[in-house]
Write a structure and sequence with these properties.
Oligomer: single chain
Structural class: alpha/beta
Number of domains: 3
Largest sheet: 11 strands, mixed
Strand content: 5-15%
C-alpha cells in the first residue's frame, strides 16, 4: 500500500485540490449508470451487481434530484466508478433493515437527511410534529431522533468491521461538543456517540471522492486524518505539531480566575508526545506548546499548528467557556486560513481539520450535470413527498452564505464563500426540468439557494479573502472588498425567461435586501418580472438591540428597500406586497423589544400569519448566546454583560404572541403583559391601541331572568 501524501489528502498544504472529475475511475465503472441507485437486491441483480461498494443510509425518502443530499453524493460517487446503493428510512429497532443490500465493500455512508432529525420532528416549543415533508405521504415517525447516531449503531451491529462515514447537516453541526436544545444539555461530539470512523462536514464532495478512492486503494481511514473537511477521534496526538491554547488567543477572563483549560498538565502532554514519536526518527519532534504571552511573538508553521478548545468537561460546566469555544470555532471557518481544532473528550481528542476548499464553477457544473432522474424512486409508487413537490421545478444556482446571521446554520455547514454554477449549467437544468418533470406547467418555482441574490458575489481580492476572519461580509456594514454587482444574476433571469417552454420564472429564496439596494437595476428586474404578487424578505426584528445579536441590518434598510419595491411595482403596473419574516424570543430580545416590534407591525399594517420562535440549532452563534447568556460576537469574559435569554416555554409563547397581536387568542396574555410593562394605555379600541380591552361578561341566556310576559307565554 502506498501511503497517502499530504497533497493527496487535500489538507492544509495546498489550496489547489484535485478536481472532482479528475480522479481515475474505479474499476466498477464498467457497470455503467444506474437508472436509479438501487434500494433492493432485485435492483442490484438487474444491474448485474453482486455487491455495493458504498451504501448510503439516509433518514429521507430517496428522491433522485440535486436538491437531495443522498442523490448528489450517490451520483457523484457513481461518477467516480463506484457502485452505490441506498437504504432509505430503515426500521431501526434492529439491524435487519441495514442488511438488505448486503455488506458494502468499502464503507457505509450515514446521513440524517436534508434536515436535522430533531428539528424535523419537533417544533420550537418541543411539540412533536404531525408530519414529515421528506417522507412519502408526509407520514410522521419514519425516522428516529438523532438519526445519525441510531443508524450508525445499527450499521455497526449489521457488519461490525465495515467502516462508517457520517455526514450531512446533522453530523456537520455536531462535530464538536454542542448545546442540545432538546435535552437541554451540552452533548459530546456525535463522532463518539455514533462510534463512526470519520465525520465529513459541509457539502463534502471533495472529502468523499478522496476518501472513496483512498479506501479503494487499500488505505485505512485512520491514516487519512489530515483530510480537509473531516473530523476524527484520536487516542494520541501527532508529534511535531504546535499547539495553541484557544484561551491564549481570546482569553475569556483574568488568568488567575480559572484553572488551565487543559485536562492534563503541559509537562504530561509533552511527555506523552515524546513517547508517541518513533525513536528511530530523529526528525520527529514532540508537540510544542506556545504559552501566553509568547503566542503572538513566536513563529510557527500554520499547517502543523492546531488550536486546543476548552475540553468537553469544561464547556459542560462553564457556559462562558462554551461561548468562547463557539467564538473560536466560527473564527476558524475560512478554509484559506483556518487552523485545525482539537477538543478533549475524556481520554480522547476530537480532531477537526480545516474546512474544504470551495468547489470551482466547473466542478459545481459537473455535480449538477450528473444524470439525476429528477423524481422519487419508483418504489414509492406515486406517493406524495411534500419536500419534492416544493423543489421539483426549482434550480439551485449557488451554495454558501456570507451573511453570518447568528441564528442560522447555513454558514457553518456550507461556508461563507459563495460557490456558483455557470449560466449555461443553470439553463441546461431548466431544460431538463421542462423535459423530465411530469406535468411541468411552464413555471420555474425558484432560481436561488441559501439566498436569492448572492450568485457570483465574492471578495474582490483573493489575497484579502485568504486572510479575512470576518464573521459576515455584510455586518455591521457591507465590506468594501465585497463585489455587490448583481448583473450576472440579472442576466441569468433574462436568459432563463427566454427558454422555450418556460412561461414564468419565480424567485422564492429569501432576498438579502441590504445587498440588493446596491444594485437598483437588479431590484427593478426582480420586481418587474419575478414577483408573483408577494416577495419574502426577512428583517427578523425592528429594534437595533436585538438586530445586533442577530447580525442583521438596521430596519432602515428594509424601509429603503420597500420604497424601491413599491416604486418599481407601480412602474410595472402591478399590485405587489412584501412578506416580512420575524423571529420571537431571540437572545437579547425581551418583552419591551417585542412590544416595540409589535407596534412597528401595527404601524405598517402587518398581520403576520406564519411567525417563527427562535430555534437553538446546534453550533449556531445564537445558540451559544441562548445557552451561555454571553455574547460570543465580542470577547467573552466572565464579567461580560448578561444577555436577556427567554427559556421558559410560556415566555417564549408570549413573545410569539406579540408578533400575532391581531389574533384574539393571544389577547388575554398580551393584556397581562402590557399591564406588567406599564403600558395599559395600549389596551383599547382606538387607532393608537394595540389590542382591545376585555369584554364585560354578560349573563348567559340560561341563567338570565326572562321578562314576565315571556314566562306567561
Amino acid at each position: 500500500m502506498t501511503k497517502a501524501t499530504p497533497s493527496q489528502m487535500n489538507n492544509g498544504t495546498t489550496d489547489t485540490p484535485p478536481k472532482l472529475y479528475s480522479y481515475p475511475k474505479y474499476w466498477a465503472e464498467c457497470f455503467g449508470t444506474a437508472p436509479y441507485l438501487p434500494m433492493s437486491r432485485a435492483e442490484m441483480d438487474d444491474l448485474g451487481w453482486d455487491s455495493c461498494d458504498i451504501i448510503i443510509v439516509t433518514a429521507d425518502a430517496y428522491v433522485d434530484h440535486p436538491s437531495f443530499g443522498m442523490a448528489v453524493i450517490g451520483r457523484m460517487l457513481e461518477a467516480q466508478g463506484f457502485r452505490v446503493g441506498i437504504i432509505s428510512q430503515p426500521a431501526w429497532d434492529n439491524a435487519d433493515g441495514f442488511k438488505i443490500l448486503g455488506k458494502p465493500n468499502l464503507f457505509f455512508g450515514v446521513t440524517g437527511g436534508n434536515m436535522d432529525s430533531l428539528i424535523n420532528r419537533y417544533t420550537a416549543d418541543l411539540r412533536l410534529r404531525s408530519d414529515d415533508a421528506y417522507t412519502p405521504n408526509a407520514e410522521a415517525g419514519k425516522r428516529p431522533d438523532r438519526s445519525v447516531i441510531v443508524y450508525s449503531q445499527r450499521c455497526r451491529e449489521a457488519y461490525y468491521d465495515t467502516p462508517i462515514v457520517i455526514g450531512g447537516i446533522e453530523a456537520s453541526l455536531r462535530r464538536i461538543a454542542q448545546y442540545d436544545y432538546w435535552s437541554d444539555k451540552v452533548r459530546r461530539s456525535v463522532l463518539i456517540d455514533a462510534n463512526a470512523d470519520i465525520l465529513l462536514f459541509g457539502n463534502a464532495e471533495r472529502a468523499l471522492a478522496e476518501l472513496a478512492h483512498q479506501v479503494a486503494a487499500g488505505a485505512k481511514i485512520a491514516d487519512l486524518w489530515q483530510m480537509r473537511g473531516t473530523a476524527f477521534v484520536k487516542n494520541e496526538l501527532p508529534a511535531g505539531w504546535t499547539e495553541i491554547d484557544s484561551t491564549r488567543i481570546d482569553w475569556p477572563s483574568k488568568i488567575d480566575e480559572i484553572p488551565n483549560p487543559y485536562d492534563f498538565h503541559e509537562k504530561e502532554m509533552q511527555k506523552q508526545a515524546q513517547t508517541q514519536a518513533p525513536a528511530a526518527d530523529p526528525e520527529v519532534q514532540s508537540i510544542r506548546i506556545i504559552p501566553m504571552p509568547l503566542q503572538r511573538r513566536e513563529k510557527y508553521d500554520a499547517v502543523t499548528t492546531y488550536i486546543r478548545l476548552p475540553s468537553f468537561s469544561k464547556v459542560v460546566n462553564d457556559p462562558a467557556l462554551y461561548a468562547h469555544a463557539s467564538r473560536v470555532l466560527h473564527q476558524e471557518a475560512n478554509p484559506y486560513n483556518a487552523k485545525t481544532l482539537v477538543q478533549k473528550h475524556g481520554t480522547q481528542d476530537i480532531w477537526v481539520n480545516p474546512p474544504p476548499i470551495p468547489l470551482e464553477t466547473d466542478e459545481m457544473d459537473w455535480v449538477f450535470d450528473l444524470p439525476f432522474q429528477r423524481r422519487p424512486h419508483p418504489s414509492y409508487e406515486g406517493a406524495r413527498i411534500p419536500a419534492y413537490d416544493m423543489i421539483k421545478t426549482s434550480v439551485n444556482i449557488m451554495r454558501g452564505c456570507f451573511g453570518g446571521c447568528t441564528f442560522c446554520s447555513i454558514t457553518e455547514h456550507e461556508g461563507r464563500i459563495i460557490q456558483s454554477r455557470s449560466e449555461d449549467s443553470i439553463i441546461r437544468e431548466i431544460e431538463k426540468i421542462r423535459d423530465q418533470v411530469p406535468e411541468f406547467t411552464g413555471t420555474i418555482s425558484d432560481l436561488g439557494g441559501p439566498t436569492a441574490n448572492m450568485y457570483k458575489l465574492n471578495c474582490k481580492s483573493p489575497k484579502i479573502q485568504k486572510t479575512c476572519k470576518r464573521l459576515s461580509c455584510v455586518y455591521p456594514n457591507i465590506c468594501q472588498h465585497l463585489n455587490t454587482d448583481h448583473s450576472p444574476t440579472t442576466q441569468l433571469y433574462r436568459r432563463a425567461r427566454t427558454v422555450p417552454g418556460v412561461k414564468r420564472v419565480a424567485i422564492a429564496s429569501g432576498l438579502r435586501y441590504d445587498l440588493a439596494l446596491r444594485d437598483p437595476e437588479y431590484v427593478e428586474e426582480l420586481v418587474t418580472h419575478h414577483v408573483g404578487g408577494y416577495l419574502k424578505i426577512a428583517p427578523e426584528h425592528s429594534e437595533e438591540k436585538t438586530l445586533s445579536k442577530m447580525m442583521k441590518p438596521s430596519i432602515s434598510a428594509y424601509d429603503e428597500f420597500k420604497r424601491l419595491f413599491d416604486k418599481f411595482s407601480k412602474k410595472a403596473g402591478k399590485e405587489q406586497y412584501l412578506i416580512p419574516y420575524f423571529i420571537a424570543a431571540h437572545p437579547g430580545s425581551d418583552e419591551d423589544e417585542m412590544l416595540k416590534l409589535s407596534l412597528w407591525l401595527k404601524e405598517h399594517n402587518f398581520k403576520p400569519d406564519q411567525v417563527q420562535t427562535f430555534y437553538p440549532s446546534p453550533m449556531a452563534l445564537a445558540t451559544a448566546m441562548y445557552y451561555s447568556e454571553k455574547n460570543p460576537l465580542e470577547k467573552v469574559r466572565y464579567k461580560s454583560e448578561k444577555l436577556h435569554v427567554v427559556k421558559d416555554i410560556e415566555q417564549r409563547r408570549l413573545q410569539k404572541a406579540f408578533l400575532r397581536y391581531h389574533d384574539e387568542k393571544n389577547w388575554p396574555m398580551l393584556r397581562e403583559a402590557l399591564k406588567k410593562l406599564g403600558r395599559s394605555d395600549l389596551i383599547g379600541t382606538g387607532a393608537k391601541h394595540l389590542i382591545p380591552p376585555e369584554e364585560p361578561k354578560h349573563p348567559s341566556r340560561s341563567t338570565a331572568k326572562r321578562p314576565l310576559r315571556s314566562r306567561r307565554k
